[in-house]
Design goal:
Elements: E1 4-10, E2 15-21, E3 26-32, H1 42-59, E4 68-73, H2 79-92, E5 98-102, H3 103-112, E6 117-122, E7 126-131, E8 137-141, H4 144-147, H5 153-169, H6 177-185, H7 193-199, H8 202-206, H9 209-215, H10 220-244, E9 253-257, H11 268-277, E10 281-282, H12 289-304
Parallel strand pairs: 1-4, 4-5, 6-9, 9-10
Antiparallel strand pairs: 1-2, 2-3, 6-7, 7-8
């Protein structure tokens, strides 16, 4: 058996991987491109994961296959695409044992361990996942860009583009977003956003979210979009807390994860304030999804070989 495991946290903007020793020590870390999974691209996502896993192992002076790999990826909760990615990774020889799950599962393992609480994740997409004291699990959101993803980077970027279109028509107020988003998209006029958006991927549109967030300090339209995104995310978490209740603790813990909610993220303070007002407790520490995925990979090794994770002391 190999002497290390790999955890991968794949999202619509970037993928992170860690190599952990069999006692949980960090050996290596690497960052790669997007790994947003759908029914068409399991082989492509597998290549991205293989590359970043290989880089994390190489930083530690190790080579694949790992003893186990857990890939937590956006879109990894659907059985058909999950199975396709698992087969592609196993065929590539990334790990002796390979499991595919969601990015929020990886975040929850890092933030909550095996205990109760809620993870609210807002990156390219958005979802809330929780587990109560009795072990009951539920989720709110995670419906994808067509049916949900409210408050996500994709949603915020798209709403910014729509605000530009409304301003151009006179259906909405003038906004500094017009200049900023045209520059970000590399087009000369609002009409140029039509072909740009039709060819853009989810990650491209989500990449506009920081532009909207930065403009919010001086632009009323952008400011309202940021407030609406924060409210939408808070509703996901409070709805989930109600579904999983009653809780034994007065303030169920909520960990905030993903680029928009990580420490320093543009929505962290707003969402945290809304959740605190609703009686939920905010986990102060940032969430490392790759590390959580690594711990889930380590669980696979311990399940196969209980002595592997034993404390050598």
């Amino acid at each position: 058996m190999s002497t290390f495991v790999v955890g991968v946290d794949g999202g619509g903007t970037r993928t992170q991987a860690v190599a952990l020793g069999l006692h949980g020590q960090l050996l290596g870390r690497a960052v790669g491109g997007a790994a947003l999974l759908d029914v068409t691209n399991a082989a492509e996502v597998a290549r991205s994961i293989h590359q970043v896993a290989e880089a994390a192992a190489a930083e530690a002076g190790l080579t694949l296959p790992a003893a186990a790999l857990f890939a937590g990826v956006a879109g990894g909760g659907r059985p058909e695409v999950k199975a396709a990615l698992r087969v592609a990774l196993a065929t590539a020889g990334v790990g002796e044992a390979v499991t595919v799950g969601t990015d929020v599962a990886a975040a929850a393992r890092d933030a909550l361990g095996t205990g109760p609480g809620i993870v609210l994740l807002a990156g390219t997409g958005s979802i809330a996942w929780g587990r109560n004291e009795s072990g009951r699990v539920a989720r709110v959101g995670g419906w994808g860009s067509l049916l949900g993803d409210e408050g996500s980077g994709y949603d915020l970027g798209l709403e910014g583009l729509r605000a530009v279109a409304r301003a151009r028509d006179g259906r909405g107020p003038a906004t500094e977003l017009t200049r900023l988003l045209l520059e970000a998209a590399g087009v000369d006029a609002p009409e140029g956003l039509i072909p740009w958006a039709s060819q853009a991927g989810k990650g491209d549109i989500a990449a506009l979210a920081p532009v909207v967030a930065e403009a919010a300090a001086s632009d009323d339209v952008a400011g309202r979009l940021l407030v609406a995104a924060a409210v939408a995310l808070a509703v996901q978490a409070t709805t989930l807390a109600d579904r999983l209740g009653p809780w034994k603790v007065a303030s169920p813990p909520v960990a905030l994860a993903g680029g928009l909610l990580s420490p320093g993220g543009p929505l962290r303070e707003r969402v945290g304030s809304l959740l605190s007002d609703a009686g939920l407790g905010i986990v102060d520490a940032g969430v490392d999804g790759a590390r959580g995925a690594g711990l889930l990979a380590l669980d696979l090794v311990v399940d196969r070989n209980p002595s592997a994770g034993a404390d050598p002391s």
